[in-house]
Write a structure and sequence with these properties.
Endonuclease III, domain 1; seven-stranded mixed β-sheet; 16% strand
Length: 353
């Protein structure tokens, strides 16, 4: 009987995806692609990858760029800590004098975990390091009928050892690409086409009628609700923004004045909060609003309202003097230069753009 790896390699020869980062052994470009694809589907990440390496064609270009430039290229892709880590790691590479050439060195870069280090090590340097991502968990758990939860220490260890055991030591890059594509295209999370699967006869999950039950997760992360009320203040064809501080998924991105609460705020409630910034608020008038927006993140459901207010008649004493010190006045014509969360961009598109 053919080995699992040989079947996967044969399938990959006919069905593997032709992707630009698979046509290079440049560690920088492979690394960028892997970071983009950590939490992003290939279809969405493809264009981001192309734009990112066009703007920053080398690790030197990325390391020397400003954080605003990097975040602007990442805008809309989400999981912004990836961009911050990528930028920081580029500076690490420059300090090291070049990209690391072994697994441990690659793993030491900021934002690089076991999977990403294994992928780069095998794709770029041909090292026999097996990747274990969601697709690999799924293929291995179904094929071998393993019900150890993949989100436990025991499960992670079990699958890491198994992935290394089945790895084709002579063709690690092709094997890793094959098993990931097989999971993404053939052995899909829902409704896989088992009748056309080359592993059908030897698949434990199929023969045990457990395809829909594997892989197993021990727990689900609770989804929390947050209520956002954005106050978009316009003055002289400009908008007031500030950069979101550290400690949040949107760190480094720009947004208008925001009030977070445990429940929806009324417009009167919002005005009462704005009044804390001084009498200047008497010059604010409502121009537009967007209410009831729902924005889903992985572990958060955001409910957002936004009110566009114009500061009119305040004379020489700009409202900027009354807002916290980190606010800046940005001309609407230059708004695109400031990277913002997707939710904020949706609000801007519906109100002031």
């Amino acid at each position: 009987m053919e080995s699992l790896s040989s079947v996967l390699l044969s399938w990959y020869a006919d069905h593997g995806r032709d992707l630009p980062w698979r046509q290079t052994r440049d560690p920088y470009r492979v690394w960028v692609s892997e970071i983009i694809l950590q939490q992003t589907r290939v279809a969405q990440g493809y264009d981001y990858y192309q734009r990112f390496v066009e703007r920053f064609p080398t690790v030197e270009d990325l390391a020397s760029a400003s954080s605003d430039e990097v975040m602007q290229q990442w805008e809309g892709l989400g999981y912004y800590s990836r961009a911050r880590n990528l930028h920081a790691a580029a500076k690490q590479v420059m300090e090291l004098g070049g990209f690391p050439v072994d697994y441990e060195g690659i793993r030491s870069l900021k934002g690089v975990g076991d999977y990403t280090a294994a992928a780069i090590a095998s794709f770029v340097y041909g090292l026999p390091t097996a990747v274990v991502d969601g697709n690999v968990y799924r293929v291995l758990s179904r094929y071998y009928g393993i019900d150890t939860p993949i989100d436990t220490t025991a499960g992670k260890k079990t699958f890491a050892v198994l992935a290394q055991e089945v790895l084709d030591q002579k063709q690690p890059a092709l094997h890793n690409q094959a098993i990931m594509d097989f999971g993404a295209i053939q052995c899909t999370p829902k409704s896989p086409d088992c009748s056309a699967c080359p592993l059908l006869d030897s698949c434990a999950a199929y023969n045990g009628k457990r395809v829909d039950l594997l892989p197993v997760k021990s727990k689900k992360t609770a989804v929390k609700e947050r209520f956002f009320t954005y106050i978009i203040i316009l003055e002289e064809s400009s908008v007031f923004l500030h950069r979101r501080s550290s400690g949040d998924i949107w760190t480094g991105l720009y947004e208008p004045l925001l009030f977070e609460s445990s429940a929806k705020l009324s417009l009167d409630d919002a005005f009462a909060k704005i009044s804390a910034y001084g009498n200047q608020t008497k010059y604010l008038k409502l121009l537009a609003s967007v209410e009831g927006l729902k924005h889903q993140l992985t572990h958060r459901t955001l409910y957002a309202d936004a009110y566009v207010l114009e500061c009119d008649g305040a004379g020489d004493d700009s409202l900027l003097k009354l807002l916290p010190d980190d606010y800046i006045k940005v001309p609407l014509s230059e708004l695109s230069k400031y990277a913002s969360p997707r939710l904020v961009n949706i609000i801007f598109e519906r109100t002031i753009i």
